[in-house]
Amino acid sequence: METRTAMIRLLRFLLPLFALVAAPAAHAERIKDLGNFQGVRPNQLTGYGIVVGLAGTGDDSIEYATQGMRGVVSRFGLTLPQGVNPALKNAAAVLVTADLPAFSKPGQRLDVTVSALGKAKSLRGGTLIMTAMRGADNEIYAMAQGNLAVGGLGVSGADGSQVSVNIPSAGRIPSGATVERAVATGFDTAPTLTFNLAEADLTTALRVADGINRTFGDRRARAMDAVSVAIDAEPGAEQRILMMGMIENIEVSPADAPARVIVNARTGTVVINGAVKIHPAAVAHGKLTVSVNEAPRVVQPAPFSDGRTATEQSSSISIDEQKKPMINFKGGASLTDIVKAVNAIGASPADMVAILEALKQAGAMKADLVVL
Fold first, then answer.
1. CB-based burial, 85-98: b 16+ in 10 Å, e otherwise
2. For the segment 185-217, what is each residue's pLDDT rounded down to a tens digit?
3. pTM over 0.90
């Protein structure tokens, strides 16, 4: 009887997976690539510490570096005399940052990034002293310590000349922090699970909910808005982990992206997605170039005329107008048609921005024009 029950449970777990493998959706993506479950995310950690062992490239006598060193030595029962400046050329005050992944448990290791806070020139060769790393709630979640790996190099001469390669004032410590506390996600006790899409889209949210319901054969998932999909789940971590793993591998076809034109005004980069369509319109674009050249001439006076050498201005003005043919866009012109037409009139990226803005204003281009 127990064997039969175990086989039934196994079939209930495998049948949805077989259905996904046997009939994959065209241009489908896994749900796990479209977003993430609410609460299942990394958390940022930050700490303030001291790096020692530098070759004279530290903070010297900066007050907050001195205070940090007082805190370090106080752990060992030492006290720096009042009014004494330790001149910490071999130490530097630093900020330590790391990301605490979801479901991290005490004892696991994290990579940390160490960045100089003051005027330290280089952290090469330094060692980070034990630093507490805190979360947004000001609680300690990890402890960091170790030798820095610095990819930059900075060299300075006695005359003030300097040569820098990359950034020597920042480095990393692989596996340099140890997790001391786990973050409670609450996913195993919440009444429902919530899956949040990375990009808001009503159609995609409905398709995700429909894909989950078809896989499990019930109505446990429902789209709450353009981002969130609520999923009914039984309490308990084991049951929910099993269901979440199955949901992440369900394939759905996300909705087509809205028609959008991205323009970077600083670099002249223009990106047009394939959903952009052009209504009937005619475009003519030309350039008018006005050049003014100044060629002053020196005029010498006649001999024995008591005259003075003078400068005579000489200017030449030329106008060059480039005539470009008018391009006629037929209704429903696609991205390929737009590119061909713009290339035919020899438009530069800056000219293309002007043309697209004019088409938008004329109502011939139904797309979002985003200027970065």
1. ebebebbbbbebeb
2. 777 778 888 999 988 889 999 999 999 999 998
3. no
